[in-house]
TrEMBL record:
Pfam annotation, one family: DUF5955
InterPro entries, per database record: DUF5955
Protein name as catalogued: DUF5955 family protein
Amino acid sequence: MLRSVEQRRVPGSQVDPRVMELRSAVSRLRRQLAAHPGEFRDRSIAEEELAALAGLAAGGDPDIPRLRRSLLLVAGAIGSVSALGQGVRELREAVDLFGPSPRA
């Protein structure tokens, strides 16, 4: 379940709920990608960036520009694989919990 950007911590917990949501989204998409039988050109890029996102989430206080960069790389690498579309959307929603995307 997605949480508001305003909600920072669960009472009695030291883990930011946004970070928990990010960890879950990354983990789900990594599992979906690993189970996907098809090969595509940028699969290794998606795997590397999901690993980077997992590392950022594990740190507990991720660098937001880095989160957004990794999200763009994952979306670009997986973009045309419709079977993974829901996982990419969930990842984007988890990243968006850290604040709105900067607009030019």
